[in-house]
TrEMBL record:
Subunit delta, of the mitochondrial membrane ATP synthase complex (F(1)F(0) ATP synthase or Complex V) that produces ATP from ADP in the presence of a proton gradient across the membrane which is generated by electron transport complexes of the respiratory chain. ATP synthase complex consist of a soluble F(1) head domain - the catalytic core - and a membrane F(1) domain - the membrane proton channel. These two domains are linked by a central stalk rotating inside the F(1) region and a stationary peripheral stalk. One of its GO terms (cellular component) is proton-transporting ATP synthase complex. Belongs to the ATPase epsilon chain family. Residues 33-110 form the ATP synthase F1 complex delta/epsilon subunit N-terminal domain. It comes from Acanthoscelides obtectus (Bean weevil). Signal peptide: none annotated. Gene3D superfamilies: ATP synthase delta/epsilon subunit, C-terminal domain, F0F1 ATP synthase delta/epsilon subunit, N-terminal. It is found in: Mitochondrion inner membrane. Keywords: Acetylation, ATP synthesis, CF(1), Hydrogen ion transport, Ion transport, Membrane, Mitochondrion, Mitochondrion inner membrane, Transit peptide, Transport. Component of the ATP synthase complex composed at least of ATP5F1A/subunit alpha, ATP5F1B/subunit beta, ATP5MC1/subunit c (homooctomer), MT-ATP6/subunit a, MT-ATP8/subunit 8, ATP5ME/subunit e, ATP5MF/subunit f, ATP5MG/subunit g, ATP5MK/subunit k, ATP5MJ/subunit j, ATP5F1C/subunit gamma, ATP5F1D/subunit delta, ATP5F1E/subunit epsilon, ATP5PF/subunit F6, ATP5PB/subunit b, ATP5PD/subunit d, ATP5PO/subunit OSCP. The lineage of its organism: Eukaryota, Metazoa, Ecdysozoa, Arthropoda, Hexapoda. This is ATP synthase F(1) complex subunit delta, mitochondrial. Residues 116-157 form the F1F0-ATP synthase delta subunit C-terminal domain.
Length: 159
């Protein structure tokens, strides 16, 4: 029995090592980023992407380990091959990093940071905080807490 387990372990280790070596040679990644309101990137090659996630913000480089994560409200920073950095605010969504070094972000809502109005962002936060203080049901409180989180992230993005 133990010999069989060791054989399986060696086989899995070789397969994982082969996958890691293949992933390790990637020098670019195909990037797709879309929201309900717009497609921002459609398979373009980019250098790096930084994303806000509930498990903590993290950077994505070519050859990143395959991952599926939930985006929290915040700024996605896209480092393009020409050195330009494009910052896009997302309210929520998902990020998928595939074994072939392709990355997809699907956002519920997304807007370039330079298009955000600081006064409007503060107004969104104030309204959400007001709704939270007047919420009477558990559902209303939960919805208001989500709105407050988005409002706080908006304000932080425009500062």
């Amino acid at each position: 029995m133990m010999a069989a387990l060791r054989s399986v372990s060696r086989l899995l280790t070789r397969r994982c090592l082969g996958t890691t070596l293949k992933r390790g040679y990637a020098d670019e990644m195909s990037f797709t980023f879309a929201a309900g309101n717009q497609v921002y990137y459609d398979g373009q090659s980019v250098r790096q992407v930084d994303v806000p996630s509930f498990s903590g913000s993290f950077g994505i480089l070519p050859a990143h380990v395959p991952t599926l994560a939930v985006l929290k409200p915040g700024v996605v920073s896209v480092f393009e091959n020409d050195g330009k950095v494009n910052k896009i605010f997302v309210s929520s969504g998902t990020v998928t990093i595939n074994d072939d070094s392709s990355v997809q972000i699907l956002a519920e809502e997304a807007h370039p940071v330079e298009n955000l109005d600081p006064a409007a962002a503060r107004e969104v936060l104030n309204k959400a905080q007001s709704e939270l203080s007047s919420a009477t049901s558990e559902q209303a409180k939960a919805e208001a807490l989500i709105a407050v989180e988005v409002g706080e992230a908006l304000v932080k993005a425009v500062e």
